[in-house]
């Protein structure tokens, strides 16, 4: 068992706890860059899909898992990022400028929406964000001269300094582009958690009353969380548009928002790993169901709602038996092996607690 002996504040906020952890992530990164030589194009496309969902999960995780603000409207910001990136490129901006700017514009729009929306709490906040997803569909249709309306849009080939990238004909190049964006978003998220702002997010999540007493400006902190969350989500939306090849008002529906929220709950709320674990479940579940039907001899039979039903069942099982998600279960297994044979039977027994200061809200 590794014991981290911290002798300064810098030790507490360093990027990697120890050299072993750094080595593990370095090996994982090396495997990710070598993946196009290890698997075929089909599975490489599926891994690319996992990374795109992971970026979107990081965006929602920053708001819901880190700040405690539930959102069922992030599909609207996926759409904003996707359309903003395509429109900016059509206006003549290169991808290397349009793509970051699309995320920034999505973050600005999210911050403006957050000013009235984040005054709500609980179920009322969830209902308000659902309204955003519903309104996004109508707004896309109304802005048909820019968005293409029901007909939708077809994003152009990505060109970076004369280097062409296309999802279908050049899957390895597109994979590397998504991988680089994923690494940047993950490092941004990780460093944000180590900053005073990230600690303020956690304080607001745990208790707004206590955070106020410690000098945290609640409205400003929530607004920044919403804006940064929307910025990352906007980048994921732009990549989703390239991955799909075409998109319209029905691409980013309310179902996407619900799937995103379920994804981070299954993966593990409040952790970067949870976004990636949840993305693996979302991306590979359809393939797993297809393989399962082939094995039982029903591959040619379409079962309406099967994927949604199985995904909902998985969510229910996790809420009942493992509320901390896949990452929480992994932490428990790892801790049990590290403490063996001194691990106690009820070491991870759930404690019933209620924060009395929240009664003042």
From TrEMBL:
InterPro entries from the UniProt entry: ABC_transp_permease, LivM-like
Main location class: membrane
Signal sequence annotation: none
Pfam families: BPD_transp_2
Protein localization: Cell membrane
Record bears the keyword Cell membrane: yes
Recorded topology in the membrane: Multi-pass membrane protein
Keyword line: Cell membrane, Membrane, Transmembrane, Transmembrane helix
Transmembrane segments: 20-39, 45-63, 70-89, 95-115, 122-143, 174-192, 224-245, 251-284, 296-321
Keyword check for Transmembrane helix: yes
PANTHER family: HIGH-AFFINITY BRANCHED-CHAIN AMINO ACID TRANSPORT SYSTEM PERMEASE, HIGH-AFFINITY BRANCHED-CHAIN AMINO ACID TRANSPORT SYSTEM PERMEASE PROTEIN LIVM
Protein name: Branched-chain amino acid ABC transporter permease
Organism per entry: Aliisedimentitalea scapharcae
């Amino acid at each position: 068992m590794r014991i981290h002996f911290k002798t300064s504040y810098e030790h507490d906020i360093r990027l990697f706890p120890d050299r072993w952890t750094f080595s593990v992530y370095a090996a994982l990164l090396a495997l990710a860059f070598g993946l196009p030589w290890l698997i075929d194009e089909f599975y490489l496309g599926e891994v690319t899909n996992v990374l795109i969902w992971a970026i979107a999960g990081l965006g929602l995780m920053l708001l819901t898992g880190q700040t405690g603000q539930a959102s069922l409207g992030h599909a609207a910001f996926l759409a904003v990022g996707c359309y903003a990136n395509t429109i900016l490129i059509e206006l003549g901006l290169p991808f290397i400028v349009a793509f970051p700017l699309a995320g920034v514009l999505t973050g600005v729009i999210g911050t403006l929406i957050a000013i009235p929306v984040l005054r709500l709490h609980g179920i009322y906040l969830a209902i308000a964000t659902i309204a955003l997803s519903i309104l996004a569909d109508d707004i896309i249709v109304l802005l048909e001269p820019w968005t293409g309306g029901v007909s939708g849009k077809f994003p152009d080939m990505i060109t970076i300094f004369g280097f062409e990238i296309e999802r279908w004909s050049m899957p390895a190049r597109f994979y590397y582009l998504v991988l680089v964006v994923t690494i940047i978003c993950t490092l941004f998220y990780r460093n944000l958690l180590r900053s005073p702002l990230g600690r303020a997010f956690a304080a607001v999540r745990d208790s707004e009353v206590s955070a106020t007493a410690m000098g945290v400006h609640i409205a400003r902190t929530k607004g920044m969380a919403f804006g940064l969350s929307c910025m990352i989500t906007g980048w994921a939306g732009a990549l989703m548009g390239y991955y799909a090849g075409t998109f319209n008002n029905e691409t980013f529906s309310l179902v996407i928002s619900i799937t995103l929220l379920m994804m981070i709950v299954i993966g593990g709320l409040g952790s970067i790993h949870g976004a990636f674990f949840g993305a693996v479940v979302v991306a590979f579940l359809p393939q797993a169901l297809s393989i399962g039907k082939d094995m039982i001899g029903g591959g040619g039979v379409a079962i309406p709602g099967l994927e949604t039903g199985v995904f909902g069942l998985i969510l229910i099982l996790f809420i009942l038996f493992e509320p901390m998600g896949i990452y929480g279960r992994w932490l428990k297994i790892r801790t049990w092996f590290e403490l063996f044979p001194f691990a106690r039977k009820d070491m991870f027994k759930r404690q019933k607690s209620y924060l009395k200061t929240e009664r003042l809200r």
